[in-house]
């Protein structure tokens, strides 16, 4: 009897030990998962708030490590799918997109009934989006919306689908996704987010009236100051773009009266100055820009203010010297500014332009004057985007200095401008045809023939090509005759450097065999081709 009691007692202790061991094991892997979740949550909260991404990254790495330990040590645990999903999330946050995607595939394959499968599909789409594989990302969101149309994540997926569509330049499709959220969501925050994304898309498309209408919907009572500030800055830019100058001024002044943080003031001051520009109150605009440069020196804001001053002086007040100085200051204020590079380019271009103007003093040859006018036009066109000023200088070279090597280059440049800047095919073809007739022996003439053909005027191009060939043939014959005369008399013959008495440089040849084709009727339209060399090559 006592022996039986001893055996029963020992069995009881053994069973209790097994239960305790199982309990401790369960606690161990649950604690591992709990700590991994806690670290992930902390990292998510800190990700958008801290400047120290190293600390955030270390937490994501620790999450991956703990989840990997759980899966390795407890492969039969009921929390394995939790660990695999959490590991995939942390890997995506770490920028290890392919590894994260593999974890989500692993989850879908090994745990097809897991509650994490829909979320894994969303995160897979997000990973593809982050790695810029937009076609795969779009396939993933489409599969989600088809397979889980009522899932609570669907609105989040719609936002991602809209963002992917934007990257694919399917802007209408993106707007459709955002609109669906507005129509179907009952949560006010989701609706506002969809309206905001639509507004931002319209803004980027420069459809400022539609963008403004959407931004205005968001400026309701109860909106946070941070959101009101950001939305109002964008709305003010829309107002100035569509000519609602007074509305922009009132908006910026209202915000300036309420702003507390000094960091928020310079952007509003820049906006206020732009509203004055919009109203053509240039003196007021310059005064505000000047105050920004003084009150917020060596900042992105002062760099932009100097750039804006340069634009006013250059484009509206025609003061090249002041414009050049303002542009020159922008990169000095903030080399990392978005305006630094373009401001420096404009400063250097204006400096060169002023140097060309100063070089007018003193006696110059016709070719030197033509060269100066031509390079001034090049700067105006390629560096300052002053198309009309450039055209005026190019045409002056053609009309006044047609006997210089810069005339055919200028003529080609005018044709290029008609094609690429003014989008006027008829004028371009006419210009290129005139170039061929005026300067048939130049490299630009050959380029002009090719341009005419590329614009769809094959017949005219062939005729002009034949004309050029005949001119060159006549020139070759004249040169041969001159050489024979020189051999016969032993006397050098002048004027045989590519010029024949029987030909006219302007308007084609004197005889019918070399007559230029008629180009007065240019009714046929054709396609366009960009030219990489504005001047059509060298003579």
Question: How would you characterize the overall build of this protein?
Answer:
With 539 residues, this protein is mainly alpha-helical. Among the domains are: 206-280, no CATH class; 400-514. 73% of the residues lie in helices and 0% in strands. The chain contains 23 helices and no strands. The protein starts with a helix and ends in a 50-residue tail after the last helix.
Give the topology.
Blueprint: H1 2-47, H2 53-73, H3 80-93, H4 97-110, H5 117-130, H6 134-147, H7 154-167, H8 171-184, H9 188-204, H10 208-218, H11 225-241, H12 245-258, H13 265-278, H14 282-295, H15 300-316, H16 320-333, H17 340-358, H18 366-382, H19 387-400, H20 406-420, H21 425-438, H22 443-454, H23 458-489
Summarize the structure.
With 539 residues, the chain is mainly alpha-helical. Helix content is 73%, strand content 0%.
Provide the succession of SSEs: HHHHHHHHHHHHHHHHHHHHHHH
The N- and C-terminal alpha carbons lie at a distance of: 122 Å
Radius of gyration: 36 Å
Shape descriptor reads extended
Multimeric state: single chain
Strand content: under 5%
Helix content: over 70%
Mean pLDDT: 85
- Pairing-aware structural class of the strands and helices? mainly alpha
Return residue spans where pLDDT drops below 50 for at least 5 consecutive residues: 12-25, 479-488, 491-513, 523-533
**Count the strands?**
0
Largest sheet: none
**Helical segment tally?**
23
